[in-house]
Amino acid sequence: MNEEEFEEFQSGMGRPIAGQSLTNDPGNPAPFEKAPEFTELDSASLYIWETITDPEIYAPAMEALSDGQPIMDLVQLVLKSEFQKGMFNPDLMVMLIEPTVYMFMALAERQDIDDLVIYRGEEEDEEAEEKILGVTFEEEKIKEMKEAAQSGKVPAGILSSKMKEDLLDLPDLPAPPEGDPVPVPVQEQPSLMAAPQEGI
Questions:
Q1: Predicted pLDDT at 135
Q2: d(CA 30, CA 13)
Q3: Is a pLDDT exceeding 50 seen at residue 10?
């Protein structure tokens, strides 16, 4: 995914007019308007782990990271998509940001992917600060993430024993051809503020 495609994704097409949600059919709520599937961090973290280690996501995600795609971009895509499916509420989604970053780091380490990029434009920033899903990560937190990425060590307590076992069973992925950009699948997703769609 190039920068233009990512910005288009972030902008969220078809934003509703103010008050439009008040006209939605209460008998047919969007998934994220219902009670969430997960309410605890541990179970939601395991769900996210199982989601990003699914071959359909795992392989292209690792290819994207090896091609220099920022981890924060992938984290935002995954969490926003799962929120829109009604898997967790906004508060739990925010709590999942940091664990999901480290999950991607662990997967990248498993594939021997070096020089991970944490967030878009980090090399140009004088002050390390990143905003994802409305949450600002300050310099100290970004520094911890960079150090973890460089050392290849995920902080203790992030990965459960099951996740560590799964890491050993993950297949080695073939290296992408040199010089060829790795395409990252772009899924059309409505804005979080968009009106619910039929059939979702």
A1: 65
A2: 17
A3: no
pTM above 0.90, yes or no: no
Sign of CA dihedral 140, 109, 97, 7: positive
Q: Whole-angstrom Cα distance, residue 13 to residue 187?
A: 12
| Axis-axis angle for helices 41-52, 97-110 (nearest 10) | 40
Per the CB < 8 A criterion, the answer to whether 11 and 59 are in contact is no
Closest CA to 46 of 99, 101, 109: 99
First to last CA, the chain: 25
Alpha helix (H) residue ranges in 14-138:
41-52, 55-66, 71-84, 90-95, 97-110
Rounded to an integer, what distance in angstroms lies between the CA atom of residue 152 and that of residue 157? 15
Amino acid at site 57: I
Q: Is the dihedral of CA 144, 149, 153, 157 positive or negative?
A: positive
Share of the chain above pLDDT 90, in %: 32
Give the dihedral sign, CA 190/30/44/93. positive
Asked if 115 contacts 146 with a C-beta cutoff of 8 angstroms, the reply is no
pLDDT, tens digit (0-9, with 9 covering 90-100), for 75-86: 999 999 999 899
pLDDT on residue 41: 93
